[in-house]
Design a protein that fits this description.
- The protein has six helices and seven strands; from the N terminus they run αβββββββααααα.
- With 206 residues, it is an alpha+beta fold.
- α5 packs across α6.
Length: 206
C-alpha cells in the first residue's frame, strides 16, 4: 500500500503495518469500509471511503495505468498460481479517505447511519422510528436524503420512490402513518436493489 499523491501516507503505512491483507468490506450507503490485517487474523485497521461526486476505485488485472495527482492510495496483490488468481493493482481517488482501529472508526459511524436498503440486515423499524421522532419541519423528502434516516438514498431515488409510493415530498415525516412508511420502504428496497442488480440507477425503468 502506497499513497502516490502523499495525501494518505499515514493510512497506507497503517495498512502495511497491520499485515496488508484485505480481510473484509462493509458498505453502508455511500460509506465503504475496508478492513485490513493478517491472513487468518482479526482486522486491526479499517479504511473509511466516501467517494463524493467524482471518486473512483479502479482495479486493474492487466496493464496498470499511471497514477494521477488524485490517486490517494495504490494497492497491489501478487498473482497466486495455485488458486489461479492474477496479479492486481487498485487506484483510489475519493473525497474522504481516513483510517483507524475498527472499534473506534467503524462501529461509531455505522451506528449513526440509517439502515441501508441494499443490505440483508437492514431493519426498517429503525427508519420508521426515526421518522416518527422527526421534528415538525422535517419533511419525508428531506428525511430520505438524511443518511441518519436511510443510508444511500440520493436525490434521484428520493424523487422516484416518493412518486411511486404516492407520497408528497413535503409531507411531514412524523405525520405519515406506518402503512405509508412501510409502502415507501418496500419501494425504496425494490428500486435500489434493481439498480444494483442491473447496474443502472433507473433499474427496471431503463
Amino acid at each position: 500500500a502506497t499513497s502516490p499523491n502523499k495525501r494518505f501516507q499515514a493510512g497506507a503505512a497503517a495498512i502495511v503495518e497491520a499485515g496488508g491483507v484485505l480481510l473484509s468490506i462493509e458498505v453502508h450507503g455511500k460509506n465503504m469500509f475496508y478492513f485490513f490485517g493478517r491472513t487468518g487474523g482479526r482486522p486491526s485497521v479499517v479504511m473509511h471511503v466516501h467517494f463524493g461526486m467524482a471518486g473512483r476505485f479502479g482495479v486493474y488485472k492487466a496493464k496498470e495505468p499511471e497514477t494521477t495527482e488524485k490517486t490517494r492510495l495504490r494497492l497491489e496483490a501478487a498473482a497466486d498460481a495455485k488458486r489461479g488468481l492474477p496479479a492486481l493493482a487498485a487506484h483510489l481517488s475519493a473525497m474522504t479517505v481516513r483510517h483507524g482501529p475498527p472499534e473506534e472508526l467503524y462501529a461509531p459511524l455505522a451506528a449513526k447511519l440509517g439502515p441501508d436498503p441494499l443490505r440483508g440486515d437492514a431493519d426498517p423499524e429503525r427508519f420508521f422510528a426515526k421518522c416518527a421522532g422527526a421534528g415538525a419541519r422535517k419533511s419525508i423528502g428531506l428525511a430520505l436524503m438524511d443518511q441518519r434516516f436511510l443510508a444511500g438514498v440520493g436525490n434521484i431515488y428520493r424523487t422516484e420512490t416518493l412518486y411511486e409510493a404516492g407520497i408528497h415530498p413535503e409531507q411531514r415525516a412524523s405525520a405519515l402513518p406506518r402503512e405509508d412508511l412501510a409502502r415507501l420502504w418496500a419501494v425504496v428496497v425494490r428500486d435500489m436493489q434493481d439498480g444494483f442488480r442491473l447496474g443502472s440507477i433507473w433499474g427496471r425503468k431503463k
